Amino acid sequence: LALAIFYGKQSVNVRQSIRASVDHLNLSSRNSFLDTKTDVYRTLIRLLADQNRLLEALQVLDLLKEDEFVTILRQNSDTRDTVIHLPATSPLEAQWMRRLNAAGDRLSKADAHKTELETDRKHLKDVGKLADWSSTQEQEQELSKAKADLKEANAQYRDTLSAINKAFAAV
């Protein structure tokens, strides 16, 4: 259950962060987003309560009630709530969230870099100037390095997930 709680908190954190970016959507779309996330909150509340972590369960319940209240306010006006609250984390959860976020950031950056290089290469090929690309060993080496970096970042991310599973299995 500790692992499920960890991932449940991660999910709530992501949903709380996304909530700030849905303000530009029309009322119907904002309400739809808020409606789809209540199950995640309720499941996390149940898991925390089952583990007798009642203060944390109450905090997540408060987040859910706050979201529902803001939804009601938005139906009656064009109120835009940008205050974002996140569920409390234990020191162990905070440590693993930082490690998972760092590994995810590295993976995301490596993928973006490789994609950018491949897009540049495809563009040159499309305009008939691939010879310009492949004529430089440096660009080919950079693309190869980007692919290797992505593979390594992906392995690091998987290793981090495995380590999280092991850490929370011991709790």
Description:
This protein is mainly α and 171 residues long. 15% of the residues are buried. The protein is flat and about 60 Å long. The mean pLDDT is 80. The longest helix is centred in the middle third of the chain and has 36 residues, at 91-126. Helix 1 runs antiparallel to helix 2 (27-50), helix 2 (27-50) runs antiparallel to helix 3 (54-76) and helix 4 (91-126) runs antiparallel to helix 6. The chain has helices at 2-21, 27-50, 54-76, 91-126, 130-134, 137-169. It has 6 helices and no strands.
List the helices and strands and how they pair.
Blueprint: H1 2-21, H2 27-50, H3 54-76, H4 91-126, H5 130-134, H6 137-169
Helix pairs in contact: 1-2, 2-3, 4-6
